[in-house]
Design goal:
Elements: E1 32-36, E2 43-47, E3 60-64, E4 66-68, E5 72-77, E6 83-93, E7 96-102, E8 112-115, E9 120-127, E10 133-139, H1 143-150, E11 176-179, H2 191-199, E12 203-209, E13 232-236, H3 238-249, E14 254-257, H4 259-268, E15 278-282, E16 297-301, H5 308-317, H6 319-331, E17 342-345
Parallel strand pairs: 1-17, 3-12, 3-14, 4-11, 14-16
Antiparallel strand pairs: 1-2, 5-6, 5-8, 6-7, 7-10, 8-9, 9-10, 12-13, 13-15, 16-17
Length: 346
């Protein structure tokens, strides 16, 4: 028998399919927000714009300013004309990317793919151990412009609707390109709400973590401890470190917007709970039993059953409290996942 909280099945809940949000809110900060006291488990229901009422002067809000690239490319295999999909995961060098390809069996080393009537071409140069492909791209002009013209946003597999406006899968403060998925807790903020938050005396610290598709990878092991996390690149600037350190030193709270912001600062923090400027790869896996070094509050979305994200939230707010809050959200017909409603655990 596994200890309670260390079995993947301990994070299962039954989610009705119709509660998976398929489209973003037209007004970002008008989504619903479930607020839970992590000590008592008490739940309240609000609108997201009311998050400001839970933030106090001197607190520091940590946001992930990564930018999603239109990483999904639809093309044809040059030899046969067969439809091909290539998903950009990580840039390895100038025009060489690690990618996920469909159908994989048809795309061996040397296979060539054409996109947009030949505006962009690609060649498979290596098959990696996990089945991903290294792909070299050929084009005229500027890569970002070609990608913006031909690429689609890489929406998660549970979203079946086509996105009408690419910017709706982007935070208003997105700055540094590199993500294959959005840091979705940040989608609820508007420029106006952030201005009001700052006017109240709350600091905003921007960190960067480029979100990989491993975010959506299911946990396939029975024992949580045996799960291997994907690796993602992060960066903490001196400015962000100074703001977060200042909040902690003065007895105020550090509140992370999203699990990616949490994983960034918890990866970068030293054992004494301070931050310095740094960058690198992290594969930190946070599940119950983890001792948080910096985070005092978390704004996040509702996550998939048995996912590493539900485990992270449970490590912070308690598994039973979190599952109880999720039960309440299902009863109240909250919208789940990337385009869904928000939670505040504080």
């Amino acid at each position: 028998m596994s200890e309670i909280g260390l079995s993947t099945a301990d994070y299962y809940f039954d989610l009705p399919q119709e509660l998976i949000a398929q489209d973003p809110m037209q007004k970002r900060d008008e989504c619903r927000m479930l607020v839970m006291d992590k000590e008592t488990g008490k739940v309240e229901h609000h609108i997201f714009s009311e998050v400001i009422n839970y933030l106090e002067p001197g607190d520091c809000l940590v946001l992930n300013n990564t930018k999603v690239i239109p990483a999904r490319l639809l093309g044809v295999k040059e030899e046969t004309g067969a439809a091909v999909e290539i998903l950009l995961l990580k840039r390895k060098e100038a025009d060489v990317w690690e990618t996920l390809v469909k159908p994989g069996k048809k795309l061996r080393v040397g296979a060539r793919v054409s996109f947009g009537d030949g505006i962009l071409k690609a060649e498979i140069v290596e098959v990696l151990d996990d089945g991903n492909r290294l792909v070299k791209f050929f084009y005229d002009g500027i890569w970002e412009e070609v990608l913006d013209r031909l690429g689609e946003m890489p929406l998660p597999p549970y979203i079946t609707h086509k996105l009408q406006d690419k910017n709706m899968y982007q935070t208003v403060y997105a700055k540094y390109e590199g993500s294959a998925a959005a840091p979705t807790a940040g989608l609820h903020f508007t420029d106006e709400l952030l201005d009001k938050i700052r006017e109240k005396g709350i600091d905003t610290a921007f960190v960067t973590l480029h979100v990989g598709l491993g975010t959506f990878r299911p946990v396939k092991v029975t024992n949580v401890k045996e799960h291997h996390m994907h690796t993602e690149w992060y960066q903490v600037t001196q400015e962000a470190a100074d703001k977060i350190n200042k909040a902690k030193a003065s007895g105020h709270r550090v509140i992370c917007v999203g699990t990616t912001s949490c994983r960034t600062i918890e990866s970068a923090a030293s054992d004494d709970g301070t931050l310095a400027t740094c960058s690198g790869d992290t594969s930190i896996f946070i599940y119950p039993g983890y001792k948080f070094k910096l985070m005092d509050g978390l704004i996040t979305n509702f996550h998939l059953p048995e996912s590493t994200l539900v485990m992270l939230v449970s490590a912070f707010a308690g598994r039973e409290h979190v599952l109880s809050a999720y039960d309440e959200a299902i009863k109240e017909r909250y919208r789940f996942f990337s385009f869904g409603d928000a939670c505040l655990f504080i």
